[in-house]
């Protein structure tokens, strides 16, 4: 849809993007490199730690709709500011944990805080500023945040080698406190000023039949959930699964291609994908990830095949980060957008929370290849679900129109 809407200032996009790099890097991507050190310190198997992570992600997913409602009611900025403070505190608790159970409690606190600082609320913040214009700015935001894995996989490994896992968590706490909190508070001030000046738009969407709405919702939730299973299984285990397939010492270098490929996909989308309907962008994004996995399985232990896998998987993952914000906005508008993103995130989180644990268990029982094929099957199901959305909306039954925000409207505050 082509709509005239306000834009978030450039400094805010860059600042918010930096907080997403720090947030995803410290609260999510760092766990894989840290897990062996945590297991050795507490005398636990790594499978148990990934099980604890799965349980904490389940809790995070369960509260995601509530976090979205709070963002709709009170503004995403204040919620993200509180969330980044909570994240810093939770990371300190991780660093000070005297035992495995205490660490698990701190891990639960981390994932609770994560529900308030990552993409869903960042996208909601952009929608509160720019309405339909948030679609383009979501692409810019995810372009910046695509460096999270590239930076934090090697950074975490380097920090833990020098400072140990406790010192690493303290550094991560400092990053959240020094980088994220000020940006999120500045975001809160900007949204408050924009709302007071009446510059916050709404976008309403009309769908021909209520039955179509239900169908679209279920297809969308299923697509995000299945993609979440594939993405979380592979990204948290990427270095280990490459080693398990015989790629060997090149595994870390190959995995480092994942982040740049994410960034490249967003650049390509900015240049050539602007006119592509969002449901079909979702099909492309979801399809690239299982394709990459199949390439890896068929070519292992070839380093070239592994590199192609990392590029394909990164391209799909990068596009999918965009779709996570733009598809719900395209289909349903800005009314209750934060809560709707929370529901999407809950479905994806609840489905994918068990995936790293089950993937690790399946790989240990049957081997890396069967586990990868099972994860790829989930990705293929996601592709079919998004193709169903594209088919449902092919006739242009969905239309969107901007309108002035009612003063004090709770849907976007």
Question: Can you tell me about this structure?
Answer:
The protein is mostly helical and 413 residues long. It folds into two domains: 8-200, MFS general substrate transporter like domains (Growth Hormone, Chain: A), CATH 1.20.1250.20; 202-396, MFS general substrate transporter like domains (Growth Hormone, Chain: A), CATH 1.20.1250.20. 80% of the residues lie in helices and 3% in strands. It has 16 helices and two strands. Strands 1-2 form a two-stranded antiparallel sheet. The longest helix has 49 residues, at 148-196. The chain starts with 9 loop residues before the first helix and ends in a 9-residue tail after the last strand. Residues 397-413 have low confidence and may be disordered.
H-E order? HHHHHHHHEHHHHHHHHE
Number of helical elements? 16
The CATH superfamily of the largest domain is known as MFS general substrate transporter like domains
Largest sheet: 2 strands, antiparallel
Spatial strand arrangement across the major sheet: 1-2
What amount of the residues lies in strands?
A: under 5%
Low-confidence stretches: 397-413
Give the class from helix and strand content and strand pairing.
Answer: mainly alpha
Shape: globular
Please state the second-level CATH architecture of the largest domain.
Up-down Bundle
Count of beta strands = 2
How confident overall, as mean pLDDT? 83
Helical content stands at over 70%
CATH class value of the largest domain: Mainly Alpha
| Straight-line N-to-C gap | 24 Å
Whole-number count of domains? 2
